[in-house]
Amino acid sequence: VLGIKVKIMLPYGNKEGTGAKKPLPDHISIVQPKDETPIVNPYSEAKERKVEPVISVLLTCII
After folding, report:
1. pLDDT tens, position by position, 23-63
2. Distance between CA 35 and CA 37 in Å, rounded?
3. Which UniProt keywords apply (predicted)?
4. 22 Cβ contact partners less than 8 Å away, ≥ 6 residues apart
5. How far apart are CA 60 and CA 56, in angstroms?
6. Residues 41, 38: Cα–Cα separation, whole Å
7. In 1-63, which residue ranges form alpha helices assigned H by DSSP?
8. Which residues have CB under 8 Å from 38's CB, separation 6+?
């Protein structure tokens, strides 16, 4: 014998006052994806930053 407890509940309804007071933990909400703008031309961005000469950095610090 297997003991199983089943509880049939009304759906969550906060406006109507009927049903559960809290939403059930197994509730699944499906969100529609946002419209994406198509990429016309692929591009890449430089990930390296430019290295300044040491002399210009020292002159900036002195001034």
Report:
1. 667 767 788 988 888 878 887 777 776 665 666 655 565 55
2. 7
3. Ribonucleoprotein, Ribosomal protein
4. 12
5. 6
6. 9
7. 54-62
8. none
